[in-house]
C-alpha cells in the first residue's frame, strides 16, 4: 500500500497511477481489441470515457454533469416503473366500496351491545332452525303421501261390465255353462266392487289423518318460527365479545387498506413531480450541450487532425482521422464517442489496420501527455497482423518521437522488419527471450 501511495503521488492529478499507466502500457489481451479500451472491454464506461477525455484534453465538466444526470435518469426509470405498479394498485371502485363498508361497520359498532347470554340464544335459534327444517321435510313427505292416496282412489275402481252381453255369448254355447257358473260371475263382480269401495274408504281416512297432521305441523312451525324471529330481532346489533372484537379487527383492517391507498395516491403525485423535474433538468442539459458542442468544435477538429498527421507517417494513400461525437442520449454515461478511423479498415482486421489504429491512438495520447508517464508499451499481439514494412515504420517513428518505447516482438517479425528499416534495430534490443530463457527466469502461471 505504501508503494501504491508513492506511485499515486508521482502524478499530480485526480486519477490513480494504475488507471493512467494502463493507458500507456497495454498488457491485457482485451486491450488490443479497441483503441480506447486500453485496459479491458469490460471497463466501466464512465471511467473509460473520463480518463480518455482527460488524456485528450477534452472538457470534463459536462461529462461529470451527465453522469449525475444519468444517475437521476436511472432513478427516474425506476420511479416510472414503481409509478405504473402503484397505479395498478389504486382501485377507485374498491376504495369507494371499502369506505362504505367501513361506514356500515362503524355504525353497527356504535349500536352494538354485548349480550352475556348471546351464545345461548344463538344456540337456541340454531336448534329452532333445525326443528323447522325437520317439520318442513315432514310436511313435504305427508303431502307426497296424500298425492299417492288420491292416486289410489283414482285408479282403483271396478270396470263396468255388461253381464247381458256375457250371458248372450254363453247362451249360444249353453252346453258349456250351467246356472251355477252365471251366478258365480255375479258374485265375482260384487266382490270386486266391495274391495274397491273398502280401499277408497281407507284412503280417504288416511288422507284426512295426514291433512290433520300437516295442519298441526304447520301450527307448530309457526310457533317455532315466531320464537326464532324474536331471538334474531333481539340479537340484532348485539353479540358476544368475540364478535365485537372481530368487527373492530375488520374495521382496523379496512382503515389500514384505505390509508395505504391514500399513501399510494400521494406517492403517485410525488413521483409525477419528480419525473417532471428530472425531465426538465435533462432537457436543460441537452440545451446547454448544443452550445457546448459548438465550443468544442475547434478542439475536436484539432484532435482529428493530430491523429491524421500521425497516421500519414504510415498511410500516404488512406490517412486516418479521430472521430469524436458528443452524445446527448442518456442510455450511456459517456459524453464523448471516440473512434479512430482509417480508410479501408477491414472488418476482420486481416490487413493489420485495426492494430495500427491502436498504435496511432497511443502515439496521440503520448504526444499530448509526454511528461505524464514518459513511455509507451505494447505486447507482441499488436504486431501479429501488421505488415513488416509497417513495423519498421513503427520503430522508426518511436525512435524519433518517444523518449522510451517498450515492446515485445517475435524474432520472425523482427528479422523481416529489419530488412525494411532505415535504422539499425539490433542496437535497441534489450533482451532476447525464449522457452528456456524467461524474462524473470520462470513462468508466472506455474
Number of helical segments with 4 or more residues? 12
Apparent shape: elongated
Mean pLDDT: 82
What integer value in Å does the Rg equal?
A: 54 Å
Number of strands: 6
Residue share in β-strands: 5-15%
* CA(first)-CA(last) distance: 26 Å
Query: How are the strands of the biggest sheet laid out side by side?
Result: 1-2
Spans of at least 5 consecutive residues with low confidence:
none
Instruction: Please state the structural category.
Output: mainly alpha
Features:
446 residues; mainly alpha; 12 helices; two-stranded parallel ribbon; elongated
Explain this structure to me?
There is one protein chain. By secondary structure, the chain is mostly helical. It has 12 helices and 6 strands. The strands form 3 sheets. Strands 1-2 form a two-stranded parallel sheet. The chain has a two-stranded antiparallel ribbon with strand order 3-4. The longest helix is centred in the middle third of the chain and has 71 residues, at 241-311. It is elongated. The model has no long low-confidence stretch (mean pLDDT 82).
Amino acid at each position: 500500500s505504501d508503494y501504491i501511495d508513492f506511485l499515486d503521488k508521482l502524478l499530480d492529478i485526480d486519477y490513480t497511477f494504475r488507471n493512467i499507466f494502463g493507458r500507456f502500457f497495454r498488457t491485457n489481451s482485451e486491450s488490443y481489441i479497441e483503441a480506447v479500451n486500453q485496459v479491458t472491454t469490460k471497463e466501466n464506461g464512465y471511467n473509460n470515457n473520463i480518463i480518455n477525455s482527460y488524456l485528450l484534453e477534452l472538457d470534463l465538466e459536462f461529462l461529470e454533469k451527465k453522469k449525475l444526470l444519468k444517475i437521476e435518469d436511472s432513478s427516474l426509470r425506476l420511479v416510472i416503473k414503481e409509478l405504473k405498479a402503484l397505479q395498478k394498485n389504486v382501485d377507485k371502485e374498491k376504495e369507494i366500496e371499502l369506505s362504505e363498508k367501513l361506514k356500515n361497520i362503524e355504525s353497527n359498532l356504535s349500536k352494538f351491545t354485548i349480550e352475556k347470554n348471546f351464545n345461548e340464544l344463538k344456540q337456541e335459534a340454531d336448534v329452532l332452525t333445525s326443528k323447522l327444517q325437520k317439520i318442513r321435510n315432514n310436511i313435504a313427505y305427508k303431502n307426497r303421501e296424500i298425492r299417492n292416496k288420491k292416486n289410489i282412489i283414482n285408479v282403483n275402481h271396478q270396470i263396468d261390465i255388461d253381464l247381458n252381453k256375457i250371458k248372450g255369448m254363453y247362451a249360444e254355447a249353453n252346453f258349456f255353462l250351467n246356472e251355477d257358473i252365471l251366478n258365480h260371475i255375479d258374485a265375482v263382480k260384487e266382490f270386486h266392487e266391495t274391495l274397491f269401495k273398502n280401499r277408497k274408504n281407507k284412503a280417504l281416512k288416511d288422507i284426512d289423518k295426514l291433512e290433520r297432521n300437516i295442519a298441526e305441523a304447520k301450527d307448530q312451525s309457526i310457533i317455532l318460527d315466531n320464537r326464532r324471529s324474536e331471538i334474531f330481532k333481539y340479537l340484532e346489533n348485539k353479540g358476544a365479545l368475540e364478535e365485537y372484537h372481530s368487527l373492530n379487527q375488520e374495521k382496523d383492517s379496512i382503515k389500514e387498506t384505505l390509508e395505504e391507498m391514500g399513501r399510494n395516491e400521494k406517492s403517485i403525485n410525488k413521483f409525477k413531480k419528480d419525473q417532471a423535474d428530472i425531465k426538465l433538468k435533462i432537457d436543460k442539459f441537452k440545451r446547454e450541450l448544443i452550445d457546448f458542442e459548438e465550443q468544442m468544435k475547434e478542439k475536436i477538429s484539432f484532435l482529428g487532425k493530430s491523429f491524421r498527421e500521425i497516421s500519414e507517417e504510415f498511410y500516404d494513400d488512406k490517412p486516418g482521422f479521430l472521430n469524436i461525437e458528443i452524445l446527448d442520449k442518456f442510455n450511456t454515461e459517456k459524453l464523448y464517442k471516440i473512434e479512430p478511423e482509417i480508410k479501408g479498415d477491414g472488418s476482420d482486421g486481416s490487413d493489420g489496420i485495426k492494430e495500427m489504429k491502436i498504435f496511432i491512438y497511443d502515439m496521440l495520447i503520448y504526444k499530448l501527455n509526454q511528461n505524464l508517464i514518459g513511455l509507451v508499451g505494447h505486447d507482441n499481439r499488436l504486431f501479429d497482423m501488421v505488415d513488416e514494412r509497417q513495423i519498421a515504420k513503427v520503430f522508426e517513428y518511436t525512435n524519433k518521437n518517444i523518449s522510451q518505447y517498450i515492446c515485445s516482438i517475435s524474432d520472425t517479425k523482427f528479422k523481416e522488419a529489419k530488412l525494411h528499416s532505415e535504422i539499425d534495430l539490433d542496437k535497441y534490443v534489450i533482451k532476447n527471450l525464449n522457452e528456456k530463457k524467461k524474462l524473470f527466469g520462470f513462468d508466472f502461471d506455474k
